[in-house]
Design a protein that fits this description.
253 residues, alpha/beta, Rossmann fold, N-terminal domain of TfIIb, 11 strands
Length: 253
């Protein structure tokens, strides 16, 4: 999971059209529905902290966890610029530790897909269940096997900006359900020079049935699944799926 190192420096630039505000409103709506809008919220795989900080600006007490120190450094700088108080932790989601329980855990923008084995997801979900308050809510999304197989597939994507450009070469192993994308980034320097660097990312496609099975094994209770684009029922061509699950096993004091 050693990714988002050099790429961290241009991540926000290339993600500037990402609908973070819509995601934030959607998540807050779900938290209110399940009466978990009060208390601490953990953002698992928080990256550069854009969504984390939007939630904090809405009045939530936030913790952000990410395995990329470079991404967290950017998140910390943004937090200080905006005079916010967020606890950021440099941790692998498969082994994260908190000082106490939280009201809810969120994990958005396909962070779960970076876990390439079902056992790793189960390990992560067990920790989520452990650190949730009694009846706490876990909301996460994931890219489906259908998206990698039929939509992204064997494609090349390129984007050119004033200060940086990238080439995204995508490869999908349908048998192993592993998606590989090789990023080549060019960042403008002074005197018309550019710095070039590359990163290779691996993600795995999952089905909703696989996620339900993993939730059951981890001790969490599956509540609902929604197509990420329509916010309606999941269908066979859903590319990204939101899942809502709840803690079970603890007794409220």
């Amino acid at each position: 999971m050693e990714v988002y190192s050099d790429f961290a420096s241009v991540y926000d630039t290339f993600m500037d059209e990402t609908p973070y505000a819509q995601w934030c409103d959607f998540l807050i709506g779900l938290l209110k529905e399940f009466q978990t809008e009060e208390g601490i919220i953990l953002d698992l795989g928080c990256g550069t902290g854009t969504l984390t900080q939007m939630m904090a600006q809405k009045g939530f007490e936030m913790i952000g966890v990410d395995s990329s120190q470079e991404m967290l450094n950017i998140a910390m700088n943004k937090m200080m610029d905006r005079d916010l108080e967020i606890l950021y932790l440099w941790q692998d989601m498969r082994k994260f530790e908190l000082y106490g329980t939280v009201a809810a855990v969120i994990s958005i923008c396909d962070s779960i897909n970076y876990l390439l084995e079902k056992e790793e997801i189960e390990e992560t979900f067990r920790l989520v269940n452990n650190y949730l308050d009694p009846g706490g809510v876990f909301i996460f999304d994931f890219n489906t096997d259908y998206k990698y197989r039929e939509v992204i597939g064997e494609t090349v994507i390129a984007e050119n900006r004033d200060d940086c450009s990238f080439i995204w070469e995508n490869f999908y192993d349908a048998e192993e359900k592993i998606n590989e994308y090789d990023l080549t980034i060019f960042v403008a320097l002074e005197n018309d020079y550019y710095r070039k660097f590359t990163e290779t990312h691996f993600q795995r496609g999952y089905s909703l049935e696989e996620m339900k099975e993993i939730l059951e094994k981890s001790g969490l209770e599956f509540v609902r699944a929604l197509d990420a684009e329509t916010k309606e029922e999941v269908h066979e061509k859903s590319e990204r799926i939101y899942v809502v699950a709840k803690e079970r096993g603890k007794v409220k004091k």
